[in-house]
Structure formats: C-alpha cells, structure tokens
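Hello Y.,

Per our agreement to keep a running log of every chain we model this quarter, I'm adding this entry. I've kept the format consistent with earlier entries: sequence first, then predicted structure.
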Amino acid sequence: MTDKATAWDRQRAALRAEIITAACALFAEQGFEATTVDQIAGAVGISRRSFFRYFGTKEDVLLGDLAGRGDAVARALARRPAGEGPWQALRAAMADSVSEVPRDASQDLAIGRIMRDTPSLRYRRTEKRLHWNEALVPMLAARIGGHGAEFTAAAIVAAALSCLDVASDAWLRSGGKEDLADLYDKAVAAVLGQAEPAEGPSKAQAPPRNEGR
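Predicted structure for the entry above:
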C-alpha cells in the first residue's frame, strides 16, 4: 500500500467516523425515524451524494459494519487451537476479533440507546446478524465433528449470540459501567447451568458489543 493510499484510507475513515458521530447526535436529539439523510449530510458539511458513498442507507450508519464484525469473529475462530472446546473457542474468537474492529465505548452506548428505542432497527439488526450464523456454524461444526455436528454447532452459536444480546442489554442498562466480558460469561454460565462463569480470556478482551454497526 502506498503512502498516498494510506493517507486516503485514513481520510475516508475519519469522515466515516464523523458521519456516524453526527448521525448519532441527530438520532438522539430528534429520533431515528425523524432524522433524514439530508440532515446528517448537512451536519457534516457534505452532499447527499457523498453520504451515499459511505453508507447505502440511513440504517447502515448504525448497522453497516455488523456483517463485517461477524466475519472478523469467523477469522478469529479459524485461528483457535483445534483441541479447544466449541464454547471456549467461540468465546475467545469473539474477544480476539475486537482488536480487528476497534470500537468506541461512548459511541457504542449512544448507538445502543438508539437501537433500544427504535424497533425497526432491532429487526434489521436481527436480519443482518443472520450472516454471523452462516459464517460461524460451518466452522464450529467442523471443529465438533461427528454425527449431528451441524445441529450442535447451530445450537451453540444461537445460544452464544443470545448470551451476547443479554450481556449487551445489561451493559447498556448500566450505562456502560458493567464489564461486558463478565456479563457475557455470566449469561453463558446460566445457559450451561454453571454456578460460576467458566474461565475465559482476560477481561480486557471483551466480546464485541452488539449494538449494531
């Protein structure tokens, strides 16, 4: 990659982040449905056409990176040791993927509140996150092996993502003060019938938040 291309990539990333920040402020102030693309573009000082160079729809400002985050988890899962159990491997992969897709906690909190207050966005999030299942279930099934591996893998992925939802909701209710990794581990422990969460990656390596993007 040339220095010029690197500078261009940084410029695009900076403007993309600026669009997200401006959009979140407008969504919080006047609601998601009432906010228009023209208002978002105007707040950043760009044209409507320029907005659509970065985001296909208004929803994509909040949800556009969701499929990519699933791909990051899948890549991290492929790097986990072969002998690692499916729950442990998936937990570690979610934690490892965070470094590949950096997040801003305050922005995640703002997005989470918008998602909570906008039913149509929650539906779209569920729709978009089907990609996670498509990416993760075959890989986990190959790790499990044997008869019924795909069924087992599908159940584990569905349960793990539900645990992530529960943990993310609790993290949101705490105003971002609770530790997301702890919340996720507690949710998994409840599903597995464990008195205490199983030991996982360090708390610094929290699973990806599930607000969107």
